[in-house]
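Exam review. A common question shows you a sequence with its structure tokens and asks you to describe the fold in words. Practice with the pair below. Do the first one on your own.
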Amino acid sequence: MKPLENQVVIVTGASSGIGEATALALAEAGAKVALAARRKDRLGNVKKKIEEMGSEALLLQTDVSVRAQVEALVAQTKKKWGRVDILINNAGVMLLSFMDKLKVEEWERMVDTNLKGVLYGIAAALPIMREQRSGHIINISSDADRKIFPGSAVYSATKAAVTLLSEGLRAELAREKMPIRVTSISPGAVATELAKHITDKDVFEVFRSHPPIEFMQSADVAAAVLFALTQPSHVDINNILVRPTQQAT
């Protein structure tokens, strides 16, 4: 029997990068996966891969910054499979910029996606998990949750909020002996599309000032997700900080 046999999983930001790799890894482990992202065509490719490996997938185009869409995502997942066992809040943006550039719209987008999107997911899935008296919420944060570098102020602030929010929720559930686990995962440098959306070109000078390193791949983070999910029910991995071997800070 596979470790996540018949578990129902929702993965946001599943159209590429960490989200796609996580969806594929969990499907390989036996889970039924609801795929959520804005790019419907890319989701279709992921759904096809999952079905080719003999697992079930549901495609739901979703913008996590819109509360009604997240609520619909969770409701439709429960309607199809009768439950929601795992929520992977992965969708995020990394729009690094120097504060004096005043890219307020980008600041708002990071807050809306990185933080509000996580809150909307929790608000929609937690009541179902409480009713089931089981579940696991995994929030993908970043190692930027504990450090600041030039250009990362707002991004780091949103990721710090995600990590602290995760711990706060975990503590509240533990206090009432509710058997629902909460994990935050804080990856370091990963080879994904995130940096391609940065519009402040001056930020890249920060990266160029550091010697090149070998980045992690999205599958490396997916392996950390699977590790947290497959622990015994009495074990809750609270936070995983995972970085490339060559990343010094």
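Now try the second one, then compare your answer with the model answer below.
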Amino acid sequence: MDREAAERAVAEFLAALGHDVASNPALSGTPARVVDAFANDLLAGADIDIPQLVDAGSMPSATDHGLVAVRDIAVATMCPHHLLPALGRATVAYNPGARLLGLGTLAALVDAFSRRLTLQEAIGHNVVQALMQHAEARGAWCRIELRHSCLSARGARQSEALVESVASAGTLAAPGAVAGLWPPGSDRAGA
């Protein structure tokens, strides 16, 4: 990364919009903070080695385990269309195969694929594919629910709109495969 070029670009972007960093004390240091936020946090998932993450967070499993699910995993991602954040939660479920993952590893997978310039649908797809390929799961499922700033703060200005996407593979690909995950009557039943 060329940090100096990135900071100059942020300052030039603000100046092009009529906000001169040099003459506005509130913007002092903003280019450096923006670069830190994007490089060290918002887009840090691109630097994560997914096979290594799965390998380090799993162990061989000779036992036939039932469905494993983790709900309400925090998601923060950046929309590649407007460079605005989308925030929400994910649920990941999988049928373990050859490897049993630590519960924190499921959350780390979501985080690794979220902290990129990516579409919501790609996050779930990538989580499912990583579980199938690297954890050798028999089935995998990921549901993501996000509130997109590009939908709420601009354009349609739908601040309560919740965007949902589901990805699945293997034994969990059939409709209703994870319907028993939530109690009947809950707002998530039948997902």
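Model answer, second protein: Residues 3-16 form the longest helix (14 residues). Residues 3-42 form one domain. Full marks require stating both points clearly.
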